[in-house]
Design goal:
Blueprint (H helix, E strand, L loop, with lengths): L1 H29 L5 H13 L2 E2 H8 L3 H13 L3 E5 L7 E5 L1 H22 L4 H30 L1
Antiparallel strand pairs: 1-3, 2-3
Helix pairs in contact: 1-5, 2-5, 3-4
InterPro entries: HTH_MarR-typ (IPR000835), WH-like_DNA-bd_sf (IPR036388), WH_DNA-bd_sf (IPR036390)
Keywords: DNA-binding, Transcription, Transcription regulation
Pfam families: MarR
Length: 154
């Protein structure tokens, strides 16, 4: 049981540290505070821009209304802009500004450095085992998330 407690403590600590470091690094890189939620919205936009607001909301698991409020803040910070679709004027797409693109790249670089610092110290077999273990953890999170969504929708 001691190993399980140590793993739990480690995961809680790592998750908290990643969030704190991301927020601080982004704030330092942008000169303004950016929440972890805003960072992940920027990430989803940058991965697929221009992208519909509804797609981003669905991908991060929030309502369109919640994303709209968050995007208002990102627009005010000069990180995101809204653009109406030329094909269907009812559709609103969101895109990164130059400042938003810089934030996206900064965040992406942080993750690449984080993973490289780990993978560079492991053998290919250890990397594969870690990936398999983390997949199991991800499956657990998906199951828990689905259960919670089922409780709130059912």
């Amino acid at each position: 049981m001691e190993d399980a407690e140590q793993l739990n403590s480690f995961l809680v600590d790592v998750f908290g540290r990643i969030n704190k470091i991301e927020e601080r690094a982004m704030a330092g890189g942008l000169g303004s505070a950016v929440s972890i939620t805003e960072i992940h919205i920027i990430e989803k936009i940058g991965d697929r821009e221009p992208v519909r607001m509804s797609e981003v909301a669905r991908s991060i698991g929030v309502t369109l209304a919640t994303l709209t409020v968050a995007c208002d803040k990102l627009v005010a910070k000069g990180l995101v802009r809204r653009v109406r679709s030329q094909e269907d004027r009812r559709v609103v797409n969101i895109m990164l500004t130059d400042k938003g693109r810089a934030a996206y790249e900064y965040h992406k670089d942080f993750h690449e450095r984080m993973i490289a610092s780990l993978v560079d110290t492991l053998s290919p077999e250890q990397t594969a085992l870690l990936a398999q273990s983390l997949e199991k953890l991800q499956d657990f999170f998906r199951h828990e998330e689905a259960a919670v969504e089922g409780e709130t929708n059912g």
